[in-house]
Amino acid sequence: MLLSALVLGLMGSLHCVGMCGPIAFMLPVDHKKPIKKLGQVTIYHLGRMLAYGIIGLLFGFIGKGLYLFGVQQKLSIAIGVIMIILVLLPYKYLSGLSLARPVYSLVGKIKGWLGESLKSKSPDTFLTIGFLNGFLPCGLVYMALLGAIASGDPAAGALYMMVFGLGTIPLMTATVYFGSMLKGSLRQRIKKIIPVFIVIIGVLFILRGMGLGIPYISPKPSMNMVSTEMECHTP
Question: Which of these, 19, 21, 12, lies nearest to 175 by C-alpha position?
Fold first, then answer.
């Protein structure tokens, strides 16, 4: 399912540009030294990947707990259904959820820290900016976290989120270099495609949970059969 993480990152990166693009565009990079600028942008991305990896690790533990309860297949189906519902459910219903309100104060603090970090040009500053950027709430990140939970393993969850982050790198990098060239009309066109890909990924999770025996898409669940039969030996 790592492919789904990469596709989600690639296709959803335009949404990331809308949410985090201003931060990437305002990075205090050294425009006069291309090599140094590339290094600074790379460190920024490493900070984001580190944040995504930590989040994926934590949510992977949740998935592992559910896996130990023997609900791995049902979990995959449930996550696929949730992905599809979140795409089909009108935004006005989601924005009114009280569960999102406690996040706003945290977002305010993160933005404050980002504002302070944007004033410096030291290497650790770019790592800090990327790291804090990775913790900003984002609908696409939430979708990727569902995949991290479905992985059923902390390491796999961290890897899933880092692959997702890897998929966002090309367009986020383009934002740093060519931010003014990303026209609004292009953004709107690709934004319309993103929900389609999320639904497709949701369907893949459902198929995975159904265990239909389709290689790579819906493999049958592996079961360790323990024989309880006792052999009788005659003297």
Answer: 21
In a domain? residue 74:
yes
- CA dihedral (42, 137, 135, 161) in degrees, to 10, reads -70
Closest CA to 20 of 194, 174, 195, 185: 174
Does 33 map to a domain?
yes
The verdict on residue 221 lying in a domain is: no
What is the spatial distance between Cα 80 and Cα 46, in angstroms, rounded to a whole number?
Answer: 29
Cβ proximity of 143 and 57 under 8 Å: no
The range of the structural domain enclosing residue 104 comes to: 2-210
For the stretch 198-223, what's the b/e string if a residue is b when 16 or more beta carbons lie within 10 angstroms of its beta carbon?
Answer: bbebbebbbbbbbeeeeeeebeeeee
CB 77 within 8 A of CB 218: no
Q: What is the pTM of this model?
A: 0.72
CB 131 within 8 A of CB 23: no
pLDDT 10s digits, 4-38: 788 888 877 766 666 666 677 778 888 788 898 89
Instruction: Indicate the number of domains in the chain.
Output: 1
Pick the closest to residue 150 from 55, 52, 58, 66 (CA basis).
66
pLDDT digits (tens, 9 = 90+) for 59-74: 999 888 877 666 777 8
Residue listed under structure tokens 């239909």? 212
| Nearest by Cα to 48 from 190, 176, 178, 184 | 176
- Residue 141 tokens read as 């990140």
Burial status of residue 36 (CB atoms within 10 A of its CB: 0-12, 13-18, 19 or more): middle
